[in-house]
Amino acid sequence: MKSAHVVGAYQTDVNLAISWLKLNRAINVAGDCEKQGSVYVCPIRMLKSKKQVADLLLARFGHFVRIR
Fold first, then answer.
1. Does the structural domain 2-67 have CATH classification 3.30.70?
2. Which of 10, 14, 31, 53 could in theory staple to 43 by disulfide, Cβ–Cβ 3.0 to 4.6 A?
């Protein structure tokens, strides 16, 4: 499985994004959110490609949440 990180300025934004991705069956596992500097980072395991997951996030959340 492919892994990546969901990054956002607020923990609520990251949690909403994780829920949205699970609802769309783009991810199946998400780790604990941690604050790194001024952003919150949450590791994920993707079921879809990184581009598809990034497009889902961009369509719903704009540039508030991104994938790294």
1. yes
2. 31
Instruction: Please tell me the distance from the alpha carbon of residue 68 to that of residue 65, in angstroms, as a whole number.
Output: 10
What is the model's pTM? Answer: 0.90
Q: What sign does the dihedral 62-46-39-68 (CA atoms) show?
A: negative
Both tokens of 56, joined, read 């889902």
Interatomic CA distance for residues 67 and 6, integer angstroms? 5
Residue 39: half-sphere exposure toward Cβ, Cα within 13 Å = 12
Which percentage of the chain shows pLDDT scores above 70?
100
Q: Which residue from 34, 57, 46, 54 is spatially nearest to 4, judged by alpha carbons?
A: 46
What is the token pair recorded at 58? 């961009």
CA distance 48 to 13: 21
